[in-house]
Amino acid sequence: MTTTTTQGEVHAGSGWRANLEIIAIGLGALMAALAQTLVLPVLPTISRDIGASTTEAQWLLTSTLLVGAAAVPVIGRLADMYGRRLMLIVALGALLVGSVIDALTDDIRVMILGRAITGLSSAAIPLGISLLSAVLPEARKGSAVALVSAMLGVGGALGLPLAGIVAEHFDYHALYWIGAVGALASIALVLAVVGNPRGERPGAIDVPGIVLLVGGLVCLVLPLSQGSSWGWGSFATIGLLVASVVLLALLVVVEKRSPDPLVDMRALSNPPVAITNVASIFVGFALFASFVGTANYVQAPEATGYGFGSSVLVAGLCLMPSGILMLLLAPVAARLMAAWGPGKVLFAGGLIIAAGLVVRIVLTDSLWQIILGSTIVGAGTGIAYASLPSLINVHTPAADLAAANGINTLARSLGSTLASAVGGSLLAAITVTVGGAALPSLGGYQVLFTICAVAATLAALAGLVVSSPKLATHDREGVLEPV
Asked: Which of 137, 151, 194, 238 qualifies as a FRET site for 222, CA 20 to 30 Å off?
């Protein structure tokens, strides 16, 4: 049985019920985050077992990225219109359906379809953040929102070692069953214990806005994910990037004139919101490059002069401490936000990420040094990620929270996609020859980590800017207080 609550209403039995709501939504967010990374280490295995080409196997990732990028802001707006709990169940249902499809097939085309459906679950994290902001008691919001926000990073840090274990001991289809079972459990918990807040935003579905946004994002994400294969100077890559600029520019024009815009350009251009979203791109960039850099770095042959020749499992385990620390630091970050404000917490998180990346640049001799640097990056990411939704919530009307958090999650994902493109091209360009094969060199990784450290520092500076009194929260109806 579920209850219907108004914005910010504290329901009876809030202590135990709040705990159950956090568990239900947190589990859904974790499963959605895991779905993004679980297949990454087993792509070669899938390609070999079902006879798919490397390009076809890569579409298992690309299809999820494309659908996720397009779906997150659209589902966020639908959630503000029709209910956040309903759309969270839809997102988790997509994870369940997509995972079951993939678990039952060996056909690469069907598997790509399943992964595309799974991409809809990317909306679970911003929906969870906005839903918790609506149903939890005021005292619980800060730590709960921080925890769910951190799941985007935790999923990557824990997904790689989990995939490594499965790759060594089980058939890769087990990964899809894990996603299906986790999604089903989360749906059941959400239906059973999560309140259904009233006060959704009325309005019509903005079809032109959806078409332009989806088209623009697809034209942006597709060349970023495939550019290294197509060639960055190819007609397809350049043509799609130009098309994305045109479509997104048209989106701005159309949305400013729409009575019920999919994306509220006035709210999106609000300086604190805009700066926070840019900072989110930088943090997502730094984190993803650190993940990929650590996993590939550790698995590189010792003959490269820096690698350890480790297995997929060992490479994943090197990232596990960072994922655990992200979880543990979520409530700490909430307390820091209460004392300092979310902008200064973002500043601290960005500097910690940069410090961890400096460790990665300087210390290269031992595996423990790699783990240390990765763990410091994870600690900073956990703190920074905790601050981002709070900054969005403080400067966004309550009726627009789901859409605003969806855009912010999209910004983080775009940062990760950009990191994959930049990192892949950079490591392919700066190489060392080992056994007749060109492999990324130590210098290539150091350049990548330097770029990531700069990105993290820029995110930290953005935190200082948004904490400036000149960008204080506007006193307008419906804007939440800091949590």
From this structure: 151
